């Protein structure tokens, strides 16, 4: 006797709408640009342009010659504060799912999400590593500006064209940033900082790659 078994897989799908309020998000981005002292056109509609503006501030400092890292991180913290004041959940505005449905192109959504993820690291867990070595890091950004921007644009293009090989592109980008973050007389930990910055950049799309950056053995535990 053959019983006919019908398995009904009942999948409860919760269609949770991201709570990011687009109008408030745009207003907070304007605030971010104002704090950075850059034109408001450098927003989520122009994320690679914004990336370059931030690199430029890292190199040249703020309008009143403040340290670039402080200018960027103060502005980033203000934006995060602005988003939470707007009673939206901050990180839902940076969520790739939200960005993809509200941007005009996937490339734009990803490269904005990537940048915010990198800033979250550079202004969070990575802050003191760079801050304690800022003279070095600033010189690195200065000397390797085009190289580092190239690491980013290559990654964004390649990852969108061939996402199946995404994890390889993540590794290439990590190596690219790590290699760029070396300078004679500067600590090797900055290689880790460069690598980790890029790894964090890639996370919104490629967390599944599970890559790791390592600090050279000779520095471990010191
Ligand atoms: C950094 O490199 C980019 C890309 O090559 C270039 O457009 C930009 O002007 C450079 N910025 C600085 C401060 O040198």
Largest sheet: none
Bound compounds = 2-acetamido-2-deoxy-beta-D-glucopyranose
- Let me know the number of strands: 0
Order of helices and strands: HHHHHHHHHH
Counting DSSP H or I runs of 4 or more residues, the number of helices is 10
Cα gyration radius (Å)? 20 Å
Strand content: under 5%
Percent in helix: 55-70%
Q: Give average pLDDT, whole number.
A: 89
Distance, first to last CA: 72 Å
Domain count: 1
Gross morphology: globular
The SS-based structural class is mainly alpha
Query: What are the low-pLDDT stretches, counting only 5+ consecutive residues below 50?
Result: 1-16
Keywords: Signal
Protein name: DUF19 domain-containing protein
Signal peptide: 1-18
Please describe what this structure looks like:
This protein has 222 residues and is mostly helical. It has one domain. It has 10 helices and no strands. α2 (47-60) crosses α3, α2 packs antiparallel against α8 and α5 (96-102) runs antiparallel to α6. The model is unreliable at 1-16 (pLDDT under 50). This is DUF19 domain-containing protein. Keywords: Signal.
Brief description of this entry?
Residues 1-18 form the signal peptide. The protein has helices at residues 22-36, 47-60, 68-85, 90-93, 96-102, 106-122, 127-131, 134-161, 166-180, 189-206. The protein is mainly α.
Give me some keywords for this one.
single chain, 222 residues, mainly alpha, 10 helices, 0% strand, globular, disordered N terminus, binds 2-acetamido-2-deoxy-beta-D-glucopyranose, signal, DUF19 domain-containing protein
């Amino acid at each position: 006797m053959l019983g006919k078994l019908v398995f009904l897989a009942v999948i409860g799908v919760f269609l949770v709408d991201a709570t990011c309020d687009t109008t408030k998000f745009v207003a907070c981005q304007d605030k971010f640009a104002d704090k950075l002292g850059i034109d408001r056109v450098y927003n989520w509609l122009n994320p690679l342009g914004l990336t370059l503006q931030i690199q430029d501030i890292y190199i040249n400092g703020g309008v009143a010659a403040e340290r670039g890292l402080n200018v960027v991180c103060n502005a980033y913290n203000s934006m995060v504060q602005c988003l939470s004041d707007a009673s939206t959940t901050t990180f839902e505005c940076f969520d790739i799912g939200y960005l993809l449905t509200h941007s005009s192109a996937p490339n734009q959504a990803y490269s904005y999400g990537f940048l915010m993820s990198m800033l979250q690291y550079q202004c969070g867990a990575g802050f003191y590593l760079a801050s304690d070595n800022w003279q070095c890091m600033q010189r690195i950004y200065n000397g390797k500006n085009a190289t580092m921007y190239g690491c980013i644009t290559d990654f964004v293009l390649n990852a969108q064209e061939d996402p199946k090989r995404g994890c390889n592109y993540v590794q290439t980008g990590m190596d690219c940033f790590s290699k760029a973050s070396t300078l004679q007389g500067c600590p090797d930990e900055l290689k880790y900082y460069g690598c980790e910055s890029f790894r964090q950049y890639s996370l919104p799309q490629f967390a599944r790659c599970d890559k790791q950056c390592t600090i050279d053995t000779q520095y471990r535990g010191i």
